[in-house]
Amino acid sequence: MIWAKEETLSRKEIEKLQLDRLKKTVKLNYDKVPAYRAKMDEAGLKPEDIKSLDDLKLLPFTSKQDLRDNYPFGLFTVPKKELVRIHASSGTTGKPTVVGYTRNDMKIWTECVSRIAVMGGASDEDVAQICFGYGMFTGALGLHFGLENIGATVIPSSSGNTQKQIMYMQDFGTTLLVATPSYALHIGEVARQMGLDPGKDLKVRIGLFGGEGMTEPMRQEMYRIWGENMMVTQNYGMSELIGPGVSGECHQLCGMHINEDHFIPEIIDPDTGEVLPPGEKGELVITCITKEALPLIRYRTRDISRLMYEPCKCGRTTVRMENLSGRSDDMLIIRGVNVFPSQIEEVLLKIPEIGAHYEIVVDRKNHLDTMEIKVELADESLLDSYAKLGELESKIRANLRVVLGLDAMVKLVAPRSLQRFEGKAKRVTDLRKQ
Ligand code: DLL
């Protein structure tokens, strides 16, 4: 099923809509946000200069730093009284990034999330358990309102207390699970430890995952743990842009459809800021064209992706973004080589003898970068044989060397010994920064 007719407009129709909305949004920012007006003035631009979608590239970027510089409400286009909700993203240091919604923004957000939920197979028949942490994170309340809107029965169980989550699943007949991919794996593992086979003993048939990346081998691991019949999709979003609801995968699993009547995507070269031709990989930049309170223009997401305009078999005409390769600020530079944690995950999860949990520790010793990857064994049986452990370690190192082009230390650890995460997983510790 397709939730909204806007998901199937022709390219010409969508572009017309985008241009009208872009013009209004640029004017709104120019009139109401002194910081953005100053940037446009500096670039010698007036709202009337935006005459075609191609002119988008003339506009100045917005970045996280702009939000910081204007903390908390300086980039908002409306007085605080018009806000009905505030969220904030979890900065690890300093002040958080604050975002706000008018009543109309809430409607748009709900609509966008309803679309991506339906893309992932959700319907009013579903009992949806939301295992994102409720609070300032946009994930839980975003999915909550979107799923309620399509008529699903929502269980706001939040994250943590995993055994109780499983009890709710059994007792309430949960059919749809909302979580980060890493927490979904953890819940599945705990269910198994409780003697359940999630594919048979639970009714969960849809996984709507997001908030962090899910590589293809991780999706395979999800089927292994939750059962082959689970519909596993991921969706993408960001607090600054709206929260969840920017894009989501449909059943074809060929990238995430962007809600293009609300967001205009571009891909740029992260170093030069130049817009790249369709199909090339680079940093995703998004312009919000329907929001009222915080309609960010050309927001630099730091996420690395590619746009795909080829038609999708699902019938939607909206452009798809490739599942992220990572964030430009997640990229590790090890002895001069660029390494994305997702590349490491791809290698590790293809090796059957090891589990889905890993930790990457980067350090500098004697002026040389080192990388140690701690990997969990899938089961205890190998622990008894030094020879087999050594062989496995060499195999992992060799596979990593082929993909990364550099040598990493590999440390095999006992099953279930690495930390588990109830929200977004933290897989990398870079001791060079401390
Ligand atoms: O994570 C919004 C969200 C919640 C999206 C729940 C989907 C589901 P933030 O906390 O602001 O917002 O974090 C945004 O998370 O820039 C990406 O780096 C990462 N991210 C979100 N979804 C995905 C995904 C929410 N499907 C940051 N794949 C983004 C990879 C993702 N990374």
Describe the protein.
This protein has 434 residues and is of the alpha/beta class. It folds into two domains: 1-329, Rossmann fold, CATH 3.40.50; 337-433, GMP Synthetase, Chain A, domain 3 (2-Layer Sandwich). It has eleven helices and 21 strands. The protein has a nine-stranded mixed sheet with strand order 4-3-5-6-7-8-9-14-13, sandwiched between helices. Strands 10-11-12-15 form a four-stranded antiparallel sheet. Strand 8 (243-249) and strand 9 form a beta hairpin. Helix 6 crosses helix 7 and helix 7 (181-193) packs parallel to helix 9. The model has no long low-confidence stretch (mean pLDDT 96).
Can you give keywords for this protein?
single chain; 434 residues; alpha/beta; Rossmann fold; GMP Synthetase, Chain A, domain 3; 2 domains; 9-stranded mixed beta sheet; 11 helices; 21 strands; 30% helix; globular; binds 5'-O-[hydroxy(phenylacetyl)phosphoryl]adenosine
Map the helices and strands:
Layout: H1 11-32, H2 34-42, H3 64-69, E1 83-89, E2 97-102, H4 103-119, E3 127-130, H5 138-149, E4 153-155, H6 162-172, E5 176-179, H7 181-193, H8 198-201, E6 206-210, H9 216-226, E7 231-238, E8 243-249, E9 256-258, E10 263-268, E11 282-288, E12 299-305, E13 307-308, E14 320-321, E15 326-327, E16 332-334, E17 337-339, H10 341-348, E18 354-365, E19 368-377, H11 386-404, E20 409-413, E21 428-430
Parallel strand pairs: 3-4, 3-5, 5-6, 6-7, 18-21, 19-20
Antiparallel strand pairs: 1-2, 7-8, 8-9, 9-14, 10-11, 11-12, 12-15, 13-14, 16-17, 18-19
Helix pairs in contact: 1-2, 4-5, 6-7, 7-9, 10-11
The structure holds 5'-O-[hydroxy(phenylacetyl)phosphoryl]adenosine (DLL).
